[in-house]
Design a protein that fits this description.
The chain is mainly beta. The chain is 8% helix and 48% strand.
């Protein structure tokens, strides 16, 4: 039976229509911008100053911030003195003279962006007065985003658009490879992102925020668990920032593991230098894949031997996958606009040929599943294809240099192969086969407002608001003599907003920064619009209900000395949920609340070298998935509600950022940290103890529960060293302790209460990280920096603890309805990459992923399928 029988209708537009729409929109935007362009750019030598009258120290701090010039002086020079301030478009020298008028101070420039103040009387003295060293009190110019992670009390990673293009791999989640403590779970299923940070994953523990919006969706994996999915096209990612550990950000409510923040492309990613209008066109080809076969086609090995037709791997230089995008941007003094469209199509990929763990066919023709997967080396991996379309539209209204409003809309449509975890584990069917395609339709609206008056230190306001709607139709099928449909269709929407304002104070007792604000989210889950159980055969009842959460927070940073920084954050959050499941007699509503707090201290004994300590106690309320009754939770929510979980985390680390260390043109970035997570009331699923009414034995009753605790401890290292045209980096993450412990006498007999490999039948079984991950990157620039080339080596070690904690007493725990622990062998992947800039308008990228054609199964897999074998990617970028 063809796939069209089960796949729901999908709204698509032809490429020609979309390109025409984009160009029409660009023409309209040009007309709007031209009508608004009236202000002339200020001369390069002038700066618009707005420094209010007040204390001299405050005025000097504002001068440094507005001019980007570093001002140094002894604290006594400004103590007790005032300034009349300055307003208008002036050269920095003129503005500084006005600020210092009547103070008895003079100045001298020690560089193009640094100035030192002197006592005029002392400068004119003829005696041998000893002049003490100066103290910097103003902030330097904006830091390089790549430097910020090495100047912050915590563990951060910044990826530029160039780095994302370089290491995007076959699946979207591949861009997270090589970051210490960070992995993507279930990375070969549906093209989604499900980030694991330091062993914490899913259900809002690591929110992925795209332009201020969250669109995480929990995807049911049958009895084999659940994955939390976020979707975005890589061509639309302008930059990415990952914060590991406790976060005080306005968007970090419930983020017990960390936060991933993605910024989509804008004019700076599209326009050529000095241009106000531009077009960027990207195109790419990919090898090592082929169009998915008909639904019901076998793969892997089964009882009767190996499937035919799945080992006809295409020639190495024969591409079947492609991607393409067009982005248009315009910028002016009052308005920015960005419009983009992307297509991405990749068939089922093929596994590598070299390695162990795959299935085999014996001489007698009997197929034997491998230790890791039924798929054979070099075989097509079924249900890994994707066919995507994406749109992006953003407009930024700049009311002034101090105030702006950005409005955005994005759309993501995908037809993809979905692998139900239960099916892949052999729970539902013994063999691997091509299923019916699934679809997702995701629409997101965003609004981002900023207001930062140059003459007011009390206002630095940021507001983010969003709404998204998701229609996700997962088509799972059971194959016996024919395909039997099982539809897991979800319709959900989410809306939310965050507000944060920062006030800054510069005093003789040090610099203070106070941030305060709040936010809310509301999620609804049910069936897609217009769908009901009665009119859709094969559709299984999903979760039905809503969840809302609100929070308020405040943060204080105090810098009493240049070498010392103390900060603290406190947050109160409250959540409500409503379960409207048909499994309940009546709707079930519950609520909870609590406080979170974070403290940190940073010491910088030598400029560029920091030592820090950080403590967090972060509360996470049950997610929407955890709050509602549904399949795989046989105990309904009103019978066993779960309490919020709390992560008490500790982190100690060092940062070192040095230039000119060994030569005049080298640079060192170094970060090392030890971390500890202790999550009390950790929320998961398990086989709960339930005495049968039919005899003296126990049922397998699946329900949500709070563990006593879960723990993860370890350390990480990130180092970068650049010298001349050569660049290098090394990252390492190592876990020293992982443990999960359930309350005694709660789990069904035979299940261990404590285990490093995860609790029996719990989601934690698929989130136990590898003991070690190591990444080495070596590269160089050549031909006047037009050519960049290099290699990256990724090593992923063995699972911290093999298997699960269970004695599997016969007739009790050992049953077919069990989440299988993720399983992989250690593997090393070698990638090569090169980029050549032909001209300012054109560049070519070439990458060879998995150079040695390694056969491997990804760490943190929900489904035991191998990753892609050797794959050649080639692309071109044009800018006009």
């Amino acid at each position: 039976m063809g796939s069209a029988t089960f796949a729901p209708p999908r709204r698509r537009h032809s490429t020609a229509m979309m390109f025409a729409t984009l160009f029409k929109f660009s023409a309209i935007s040009l007309a709007l911008v031209a009508a608004q362009q009236s202000a002339l750019a200020q001369p390069a030598s002038s700066v618009r100053f707005a420094i209010p009258a007040g204390s001299l120290s405050n005025a000097l701090a504002e001068f440094g911030r507005q001019s980007g010039i570093q001002v140094s002086y002894l604290p006594d020079y400004a103590s007790g003195k005032s300034s009349a301030g300055v307003q208008g478009d002036l050269a920095p020298q003129q503005a500084l003279q006005a600020v210092l008028a009547g103070s008895g101070l003079t100045y001298s420039f020690t560089g193009s962006d640094s100035v030192t103040l002197h006592n005029a009387a002392a400068a004119n003295a003829t005696d041998d007065t000893l002049q003490l060293g100066t103290i910097t009190v103003t902030k330097p110019k904006a830091a390089d985003p790549a430097d910020v992670p090495y100047q912050t009390a915590g563990s951060l990673t910044h990826l530029s658009g160039e780095q994302i293009d370089r290491f995007r791999g076959t699946s979207v989640g591949d861009l997270f490879s090589g970051i210490p403590g960070v992995l993507n779970g279930d990375g070969r299923n549906s093209g989604a992102v499900d980030v694991n940070i330091r062993g914490m994953q899913g259900q809002g523990r690591v929110p992925v925020i795209v332009d201020g919006a969250s669109q995480e969706t929990s995807i049911y994996q049958g009895y084999n668990g659940s994955t939390s999915s976020t979707y975005i096209d890589p061509d639309f990612i302008g930059s990415l920032d990952i914060e590991r550990g406790a976060s005080s950000g306005a968007d970090a409510t419930g983020a017990t593991g960390g936060v991933v923040r993605i910024s989509t492309i804008g004019p700076k990613d599209i326009l050529l230098p000095g241009q106000t209008f531009g077009v960027r066109i990207k195109g790419g080809l990919t090898t090592n894949s082929k169009t998915a076969p008909a639904a019901g086609s076998y793969g892997g090995v089964g009882y009767s031997g190996g499937a035919e037709g799945t080992q006809n791997r295409p020639a190495f230089l024969h591409p079947h996958g492609y991607s393409g995008s067009i982005a248009v941007a315009n910028t002016s003094d009052h308005f920015d606009i960005t419009a983009a469209y992307a297509q991405r199509n990749n068939g089922n990929y093929y596994a590598g040929k070299h390695g162990h763990g795959g299935g085999t066919v014996q001489d007698d023709g009997i197929g034997v599943a491998g230790t890791l997967t039924p798929y054979r080396n070099g075989e097509q991996v079924l249900n890994t294809s994707t066919d995507n379309e994406s749109w992006l539209l953003k407009g930024n209204i700049k009311f002034s240099d101090e105030q702006h409003l950005e409005l955005g809309y994005s759309r993501y449509l995908s037809t993809y192969g979905h692998i139900l975890g239960s099916q892949s584990q052999g729970i539902i069917a013994p063999m691997q086969y091509q299923g019916v395609m699934s679809t997702i339709d995701l629409a997101t609206w965003t609004a981002r407002y900023g207001w930062h008056p140059a003459d007011n230190n009390l206002i630095d306001l940021k507001v983010d608001a969003f709404y998204n709607n998701i229609d996700n139709r997962i088509n799972s099928t059971v194959y016996t003599d024919r395909l039997y449909p099982q539809y897991f269709w979800v319709g959900s929407d989410r809306k939310g907003a965050t507000v944060a304002n920062t006030s800054r104070f510069y005093t003789d007792f040090g610099d203070f920064s106070v941030q305060y604000g709040g936010g809310f989210t509301r999620e609804n889950s049910g069936l897609p619009s217009g769908i009901s159980l009665e009119n859709t055969p094969g559709l299984l009842a999903g979760r039905d209900g809503w969840r809302k959460e609100s929070n308020g927070f405040g943060s204080l940073e105090w810098k009493p000395r240049q070498w010392l920084t103390l900060s603290g954050n406190v947050r109160y959050s409250h959540f409500d949920s409503m379960d409207k499941s048909s499994l309940l007699a009546d709707n079930y509503k519950r609520s909870d609340d609590g406080w979170s707090h974070i403290l940190s201290l940073t010491v910088e004994p030598v400029e560029g070298f920091q030592i820090y300590g950080k403590y967090g106690s972060v509360l996470r309320s049950p997610s929407l998935f955890e709050s509602l009754s549904g399949t795989s939770f046989l105990y309904p929510a009103n019978n066993n509600p779960v309490a919020p979980e709390r992560n008490k985390s500790i982190e100690f680390g060092i940062n070192d950022l040095q230039e000119g260390l060994l030569t005049s043109d080298d640079k060192l970035r170094l970060h090392a940290a030890w971390f500890s997570n202790h999550i009390s009331n950790y929320i998961t699923r398990g086989n709960l103890k339930s005495k049968s009414t039919f005899g003296d034995y126990y049922n397998y009753v699946l329900g949500r529960l709070n563990l006593n605790y879960a723990e993860m401890r370890g350390f990480e290292l990130s180092a970068e060293y650049n010298i001349g045209p050569v660049f290098s980096s090394l990252s390492w993450n190592h876990y020293t302790h992982v443990m999960f412990c359930a309350p005694s006498e709660v789990l069904a007999p035979g299940a261990a209460d404590c285990a490093a490999g995860g609790i029996y039948n719990s989601f934690s079984l698929q989130q136990v990280p590898p003991r070690d991950t190591v990444t080495l990157n070596l590269g160089a620039h050549a031909l006047d920096d037009d050519l960049t080339f290099g290699t990256r080596v990724n090593y992923v070690g063995s699972r911290y603890a093999e298997g699960m904690g269970s004695t599997s007493a016969p007739g009790q725990v050992a049953g077919s309805y069990s989440i299988a622990a993720s399983k992989w062998h250690p593997y090393t992947l070698i990638d090569l990459y090169a980029n050549y800039r032909i001209s300012p308008n054109a560049s070519v990228d070439v990458a060879l992923d998995n150079l040695t054609d390694r056969f491997y199964v990804d760490a943190l897999n929900t489904i035991p399928v191998p990753g892609p074998g050797r794959t050649l990617r080639a692309g071109v970028t044009l800018k006009f």
